[in-house]
Amino acid sequence: MPNPSDYIALGSESEEETEPELEEDSEETEEEQEQEGFIPLMESPGVLAEKESKNGEATVCSNAGESGENSQGNEWNRGDIDGLFCPICMEAWTTTGDHHVCCLPCGHIFGFSCIRKWLQQRGTTKRCPQCNRKSTLKDVRKLFASRVVAIDGESQKRIQSLEAKCISLDKKNAVLIKKEAEWKKEEAEWKKREALLQRELHQLKEKTIYLEHLLDVKPRTLGHPPSMGGYCVPSLGSEFNGQGPFILQKELGVDGARLFDIDASSKIILMTRRLQGLGGVHVLTKISLVAPYTRQDISLPTGSKAVRDLHICPSDGSLSLFASLGKKLSVLSTKINNFILAYDLPAPAWSCSWDLNGSHQIYAGLQNGSLVMFDMRQTARPLEFVNGLTSNPVHTIYSLHNSTLPSGVTAVLSASSAGIFQWNFVGSEERRPVVLETGNQGACISLAYCPSSDDIIASFRPRIDNSNKMAYSQHLLTPAIGQGVQGSHVHLKRFGSNCYQKLAVTCANVNDVRLPRSAVMNIESHGCLFASGDELTGELVLQELPSFTVIQHLKLRKQPIYDVKYVHDVDGGLLGCLCDDILQLYGNHALK
């Protein structure tokens, strides 16, 4: 609010029309006005602006040397004055009291006390302070309004126009929201159709693989001896009729599969898979070996991560054992497709095994080189725990038959890159493992064991520091190029409780990065056979033991080879080989 003691000298407003008497009154000098005691009047904004443009600035008078800043800290403008303050005293008028808002016939508005004093001081020359039109005290009319403000017509038009635009935009927005909902609905329908088409495509791929297999089976069984990189396999004699003991029976498409096991009695396959997509989820898949080969995905326990090893129980095919990197050892019931036990481990599990002498005890090989034994009847803590000789991960573990062991003692065979060890549990006072002598072959990358014959095959690849020191009993069949490196297979035979004999060593093309898997098969009338993948030729090679004589090459559709398993069944035996996204099954007779 401006200080009444601060004022700006005013003149009459130029926009208003004046009467003829205006010239006579305007001739009065400033000195005469001061003698009569006239009230100082604030000049109208229009006149003030006109003077500023001529003189550069308006003259401001101030009492007591004040700074000249108004109480609101802003410059005066027309919007601050019109309709709010009395133009004589620059104080806000009121709706009651002495300073009641009032007006003259000319239409100009003042505070009642100010205009009354103004007209009284003018004597006979009573005129409007704004337009200089003749006025008297009788002409003053009080206005009963809380505030007088002039409405801007242009602003009103702009407001109305903006309101109309807002209404129009609201209507457009409602239409767009409706269209968006329709598009989302259509998108959901398209996604459903896409899922159906993907399912049909997968079924067509499986059918194509099956038809290609039918076209390919006949050339495979015509009696021509297979070849391996230009090396002809020796004649097999009339026993195999030039075909070998196995023929391809079935191929299954299994995207993202890495491990599997077969339950011959229930005719099912269990495998670990990683589903496609960003951050693919690890699941178990159960596949029936009976047409139409139905499959079902089973979720892993929370926090299990990737599965490193799995085995179906040899004495109870409805139970399966899983070792995972999520520090879990889990037991699955295939009857209800649910996990019935899950043990927490101190380190990630790399391998697992059922006890061959009973269905209650299970084993796990850990990433830190340790081994742990559980009794499923006691879920609180491990039954046995032993630290390894090294901190290398235990990538393979097998339970041994206790027919040659002392009473009450159980034993397992474990393998890590450091070598092969036998560990005795339960009732054994000796906790030091038996180290199997394999010679200076390099790093152990795979171990296969046949419980019925006690034959053991260990696979090795060269270490960096001793790759030139490996010994072999035969020459390399093919050059070690491509993804394979020159490695070896060592044949060991178990005699008694802690005795092992090395029978033979042969060269092999092994993978230079992965840990391959192989199988030892004791087939009636055919003796002991060893099945392993050749990383150079992309074939599954079958060799007789202990001579490592190659008797059959099974050509694989894809590489690399992830897992090899063999099980006995009523038809004589079933050999499975898991490659990249394909599981190939071989048998002596057709699957039923």
Automatic annotation (TrEMBL):
* Major localisation: nucleus
Q: Which GO terms describe its molecular function?
A: ubiquitin protein ligase activity; zinc ion binding
Q: Using the UniProt record, name the top-level EC class of this enzyme in a single word.
A: transferase
SMART domains in the record: RING
Domain RING-type intervals: 86-132
User: What GO cellular component entries does it have?
Assistant: nuclear body
**Cellular localisation:** Nucleus, Nuclear body
Q: Which reaction does it catalyse?
A: S-ubiquitinyl-[E2 ubiquitin-conjugating enzyme]-L-cysteine + [acceptor protein]-L-lysine = [E2 ubiquitin-conjugating enzyme]-L-cysteine + N(6)-ubiquitinyl-[acceptor protein]-L-lysine
GO BP term (any one) = interstrand cross-link repair
Q: Which UniProt keywords apply?
A: Coiled coil, Metal-binding, WD repeat, Zinc, Zinc-finger
Q: Where is the composition biased (Polar residues)?
A: 60-75
Instruction: List the Gene3D superfamilies.
Output: YVTN repeat-like/Quinoprotein amine dehydrogenase, Zinc/RING finger domain, C3HC4 (zinc finger)
Provide ranges: composition bias, Acidic residues: 13-35
Q: For the region Disordered, what residue ranges are annotated?
A: 1-76
Which SUPFAM superfamilies does the protein's record reference? RING/U-box, WD40 repeat-like
Q: What is its EC number?
A: 2.3.2.27
Q: Which ranges of the sequence are coiled-coil?
A: 178-207
PROSITE patterns, sorted: ZF_RING_2
Q: Does the keyword Coiled coil apply?
A: yes
Q: Spell out the protein name for this chain.
A: RING-type E3 ubiquitin transferase
Which lineage ranks, top first, belong to the organism behind this chain?
Eukaryota, Viridiplantae, Streptophyta, Embryophyta, Tracheophyta
